Amino acid sequence: xxxxxxxxxxxxxxxxxxxxxxxxxxxxxxxxxxxxxxxxxxxxxxxxxxxxxxxxxxxxxxxxxxxxxxxxxxxxxxxxxxxxxxxxxxxxxxxxxxxxxxxxxxxxxxxxxxxxxxxxxxxxxxxxxxxxxxxxxxxxxxxxxxxxxxxxxxxxxxxxxxxxxxxxxxxxxxxxxxxxxxxxxxxxxxxxxxxxxxxxxxxxxxxxxxxxxxxxxxxxxxxxxxxxxxxxxxxxxxxxxxxxxxxxxxxxxxxxxxxxxxxxxxxxxxxxxxxxxxxxxxxxxxxxxxxxxxxxxxxxxxxxxxxxxxxxxxxxxxxxxxxxxxxxxxxxxxxxxxxxxxxxxxxxxxxxxxxxxxxxxxxxxxxxxxxxxxxxxxxxxxxxxxxxxxxxxxxxxxxxxxxxxxxxxxxxxxxxxxxxxxxxxxxxxxxxxxxxxxxxxxxxxxxxxxxxxxxxxxxxxxxxxxxxxxxxxxxxxxxxxxxxxxxxxxxxxxxxxxxxxxxxxxxxxxxxxxxxxxxxxxxxxxxxxxxxxxxxxxxxxxxxxxxxxxxxxxxxxxxxxxxxxxxxxxxxxxxxxxxxxxxxxxxxxxxxxxxxxxxxxxxxxxxxxxxxxxxxxxxxxxxxxxxxxxxxxxxxxxxxxxxxxxxxxxxxxxxxxxxxxxxxxxxxxxxxxxxxxxxxxxxxxxxxxxxxxxxxxxxxxxxxxxxxxxxxxxxxxxxxxxxxxxxxxxxxxxxxxxxxxxxxxxxxxxxxxxxxxxxxxxxxxxxxxxxxxxxxxxxxxxxxxxxxxxxxxxxxxxxxxxxxxxxxxxxxxxxxxxxxxxxxxxxxxxxxxxxxxxxxxxxxxxxxxxxxxxxxxxxxxxxxxxxxxxxxxxxxxxxxxxxxx
Amino acid sequence: xxxxxxxxxxxxxxxxxxxxxxxxxxxxxxxxxxxxxxxxxxxxxxxxxxxxxxxxxxxxxxxxxxxxxxxxxxxxxxxxxxxxxxxxxxxxxxxxxxxxxxxxxxxxxxxxxx
Lengths: 885, 114
What we know:
- The complex is a heterodimer.
- By secondary structure, chain A is an alpha+beta fold.
- Helix content of chain A is 55%, strand content 15%.
- In chain A, a hairpin with a 5-residue loop joins strand 1 (133-139) and strand 2 (145-146).
- In chain A, helix 2 packs antiparallel against helix 4 and helix 20 (491-530) packs across helix 27.
- Residues 487-493 of chain A have low confidence and may be disordered.
- Chain B is elongated, with a radius of gyration of 16 Å.
- Chain B has helices spanning 14-26, 31-42, 53-63, 86-110; strands at 29-30, 66-72, 78-84.
- The chains are: A alpha+beta, B alpha+beta.
- Chain A binds chain B through residues 2, 4-5, 8-9, 12, 19, 22-23, 25-27, 29-30, 33-34, 55-59, 61-62, 64-66, 68-70, 73, and chain B through 1-2, 4-5, 30-32, 35, 49-52, 54-55, 58-59, 61-64, 70, 77-80.
C-alpha cells in the first residue's frame, strides 16, 4: 500500500458517512437513468423502474462492500459485537462481577505502584516548562552524586550560555520566633530562583538580584501553606516582619498554592524561602564562609535550557566551564546535566529507583495471578457456551469472527475493571501513605493523573486480550458435532482445554508461592527488627530538641542554659530523670569520627566510631549500664582533664583483651585532646535498629558544648502525661526558643520501623491477596469440573464407587497441580533471593523455615480449595444426575 | 477486503481494466455512462450486474487510479464524473500487457497441434 493510498483510506474512514451518501446518490441516479432508458421499450414506468433495479443488483450489498473499502465495516461490526457482548455479560452477572473484581484488584495494585513510580521518578515539577529544566550535579570519583559549591554555581550561572538561567538552593530548618516559636523548613535560594522556575508569587514579589547582594536587607517569601497555617492567610502580610533565627526578616511575598520548590523529597513542606545572601543567618556558624568556599558542595543547582539549546550541548558547555575552574573539587569530579523528572534529586533518584523497581514487581505478580484466574473463568465459560458457539459456526460464522466476538466481550470486561481499579488505587495509596513515612509534599502529590489512568486502562485491555486470546481460541475450536449432539463434554475437547487451564493454575500457584514466600521473608524480618533490643529502655521516655546556636547563644550561655533546663525539667512532677545528649539514639542524627589510641597516628589507625556529647545523668536516665569505671560527673568540666567513655565494641577494637579504663584515646584529628577513658558501657543501638554492633564514644557535654541538643526524659508514669509540662518548662526559660522534635521513644522506635513496615506490609497484603486469588481459582476450576462431570459421577456412584474415591478423583488432580506450582515457586524464590536479600534483616533470602512454612500454607490452602467442591460431588444423586439434560 | 459480489461472471481485475479502458477512450464519464460504454464494447457478452461497477469505482478511487468530481449531466442532474489519473493509466498499461501475455499463452496452449 502506498502512502497516498493510506492517506486516502484514512480520509475515507473519517468521511465514511459522507462517502456513503455520495454513493447512494450515484446509485439512485444510475437506476433512474436506466429506468428512463427502459421506459422507451417498457409498457409502463413502474415496470421500467423494476427492471432497472433488477439489472442494478442490491444497493445494500454494494454499500456494504464499499463500506469495507472505507474501513467502516469492522467499525460497524465492532458496535454489533459490543452490543452482543453487553447482553452476554449481563446474562451472567456473577461471573462478570468476579472477573471485573479480580482484574480490578490486580490492576488497582499496579495503578497505585505506577503512581508512586510516576511521582518519584517521572512526573515533572509544577513549574513552567518543566522539561526545559535540568539538574546540574557533580559526580565524584567514587560515582557518588554530590552537590555544587557556591563559586562553581556562580561560574555556571554566569558562563554557561546554553542555560537561560541557573538557580541554586539548599534546605535548612530554621527557628521562627515570635508569639509561638517553632521550627520550620526553609529553602535558601539564589535570587532568580523563582524566575528560572517560572513561578509567580500570589502576593507581593519574589526575590530580585538586589536581595542577593551582601548586606542587603533581610527578606523572605512565605509558602502558601505556611501563610495560611500561621498567619490565617492574612492579605496584609507583605511588609510585616518574621523573626528567623533571632533576626527580623521582611516578608516580601507569598508563593502560589501547591508550590514547594523544585523537588518533593522534603521532610516537611517548605515554610519560607530566604535568599542566599541570608545564609549566614539561616545557617549560623558554617554559613558565613559558604559563599566563598569552593570546596564546600552544599547547593542543589538547576538550570533552564535556553531556547534552541539541548541537554547534550549544555552538558558539554558545563564540562568546558568546569575545566577552566581548576579547583580541587572540580578536578576530582565530573559534572552531569540530568533531566528534572519526578520529585527526587539525582542522588535520591539513584538510590530510590532500584528499590521502587523491585517493589513494582510485586503488584505485577498479583496482576499475573489475577489474569490467570480470569483466563480460567473465561475458559470455563467457553466450555459452558460451546453449544452456542458451535451453533454460530454451523450457521456460517468463521472462527476468526467468533474469536473476535469473544475478545470484544472480554474487552468489555476491561473497561469497568479499569474504573474500579482506579478507585481501588486511591484506597491503596491512602493506605500506603498512612503506614509509611512518605514525606508530606510527596504524599500530597500522590494522586493518579491522566497518564496513570491511561496506563491503567491500557494495562487492563492488554491483560484481558492477552489472557482472553487462549480461552477464545479454545472456545471457538471447531468441535461441532460433539458439542451440538451431546451436552456432556467430549473427552478429547475436555482434555485439551484442561491442559491450558492446568497451565494457568500452575502459574497461579507458582506466583503465589513466590509472593507468599517473599511476604514471609519481609514480615519475618520486620518482626525481627521490632524485637531487636535497642540496649536501653524505650518505655516511659520522651525526647525533644532545641538549637541554641540558631538562637545566638554563646558557649558559656549554652552551658548555663542546659544546667537551668535540667533543673526545671527534673522539677516537673512525674519526671524521674532528665539528661541532655547531642545524639538521641535512633533519633535520626548521628555523628561519626575516628578514634585512635595514644601514640597512634590519627588517620591510619583510626577506628571509625560514632560519638555523642552527653550530660552526666545520661547513662542513668537511659539507662545504659556502666560495666567498668564510672559515668561522667559534674566535675568533668572544661577545667578538668578531658575524659571519655567508650562502649564495648570500641574498647574491643582499640584494646582487644585489655581493660580500657585508664587508657587514653583521641577522637578526631591530631589537634583534639587525648582523653582519659574513665568508663566502659554496654553497646546499644545508635543510628538504626538493624545496625551491627558499632563503636561509640561519649564525651561530657560540659567539655564539648553544643548548640543543637536533645533532652531525654524518663517519666514515672505515662510519658505522654509529662510531654506538655516538660516542653513548657523549657520554653519558660526562653520564649523565642523553638522546642521541636517532641517525641516519645515509642514513636521514635516506630518511625525506625516505618520504612520497613511500608515495604513489608504491602508485600504481605499482596501475598495474601494472591493466595486468595489462586485458591479461588483452584476452587472455581474444581467446582466447574464437578458440575461438568455430574453424569460421570452419577455413573460411578451408581456402580458403587465409595465417596472417598469420588472425592479423591477431584482432589488428586488439584493437589498434583498445586505441588508442581509450589515446587517451581520455591525454585524461583531461591533463584531470585539475591534481589531481595539487601532488604531483609536477620534472615537470608533462602531462609528454609520461611520457605517451608509458606509451602505448607499453600499446600493446605490448595487442598482445601479442592476438597470443598469435591465433597459436593459425593452428594450427587445418581438418578438425578443420569437424567440431567 | 470482502468479495461479496462473487456471482460476477467476469474474471477479477477485468472490470478495473474495462473501466480504465473506457475512461481512457472517453475522458470524463459518470457511472451510468461507464456502464453503458462497457455494455456496448462487450456487446453484452460479459454479463455484469450494473451495481458491481460502483464498489469497483470506490476501490479505484482509493487506489488513486481514478478521481471523481461532482458535476451536472446534460439534463442538469448531479452526477459524479470519473477521470483516469496518470497512475491509473500506468496500471491500465501494465494490466493490459500482462493480460495480453496470459491470453497469448492460453491461445497457444489451446491451439490444435498441427
